[in-house]
Amino acid sequence: MSEDKSQAWRIRNKVQGVCTDEGIDQNLSLEEVPKPSPKEGQILVRIHAASLNYRDLLVLTSDPVYLGGGPDDGIVPLGDGAGIVVEVNSPTSRWKVGDKVINATNSSWKADQTQAAFDIKVGLGGKNIDGVLQRYAVFDDDALAPLPSHLSFEEAAALSGPYVSAWNALFGGPQPLKRGETVVIQGTGGVSVAGIQIAVAAGADVIAFSTSEEKLDLLRKLGAKHAINYKNNPNWSREVLDLTGGRGADQVLDVVGASTIAESLRALRQDGLVSAIGFMSASEKHDLIPELIFGAKTIRGLMYGSLGMLQDLSVFVETRDQTNHCGSL
After folding, report:
1. One-letter-per-residue 3-state SS of 56-70
2. Where do the Enoyl reductase (ER) domain residues begin and end (predicted)?
């Protein structure tokens, strides 16, 4: 391949609803493309690793549940990557050739802005913006963060998706997590694993839930103080209350949605916070108003985080020599 050429996976012939390990590649085509050139104020990065998240599966399959809209034909998917700077076209840039970096998935939410700035339609690998499943990618100078020195590219590629989402949940809301507080975290997916690792490293006690002994063992290895099978304990909020002396948890990271949101609220202390980060279950009816009013409790929806959160997370991981837990496809 000549030096002015590159390769990219593009979404073609979109098939809706294909979300299995055997099927997600039905919408992908590996193509030779021109090597991109950074405009003024931009950085060219050689991508060494990309992570696949639930949001990416929704995009790949044009799932109507994703409010960002289905991808245009030919879009490069995936939003979270890690690589090495190979060209800098900005005289005031902090970056230099050879720097290892991670990218922000959504460049709409700058470091000094609130969550109101977040726009789901401008995420990388989404509607009409190329993502990172390609050899080279161009980023704005302010859309990158340093890759923690002890992480591999594969580990670092997960930071801007599940890890920054977990960071936002724990520290980006009205009640930032404090040392010694209790957090309830559901499952063993990307955001759940990230949330456990970050919360434990921050000095919090984690009560984690999953559905099998194998997964519960993983949660314990990640640092969860308590790991409980919620299939055997459908009213698991009672377990949380027992473990906290009747007080309840300070925060709950709810990654499931309709089938767990009522239990999540019941597991909270007075004035506690539920971060709603997922919708893995079918829609259900619940009367949440009494818990919200009489418990002065809050449900906060979120997705990803700002560039400032990604930069703070990068420093946090670097200073604690923390290694991410990643799966492979």
Report:
1. HHHHHCCCCCCCCCC
2. 23-325
183: containing domain: 165-301
Q: Within this chain, do residues 270 and 230 fall inside the same structural domain, yes or no? A: yes
Q: Record the pTM.
A: 0.89
What residue ranges in the chain does DSSP mark as E strands? 5-11, 28-34, 42-51, 80-89, 100-103, 136-140, 144-146, 182-186, 205-210, 226-229, 249-254, 268-276, 298-301
DSSP letter for 159, please: I
- The enclosing domain of 282 has a CATH number of 3.40.50.720
Residue pair 204/179 in contact by the 8 Å Cβ criterion: yes
Burial classification of residue 302, based on how many CB atoms lie within 10 Å of its CB (0-12 exposed, 13-18 middle, 19 or more buried): middle
Q: What does the pLDDT look like over 265-322, one tens digit per residue? A: 999 999 999 999 987 655 667 788 988 898 999 999 998 888 899 999 999 999 986 6
Q: Quick one: which of 83, 90, 223, 204 has its CA closest to 146?
A: 83
Q: Which of 128, 157, 186 is the last residue of a domain?
A: 157
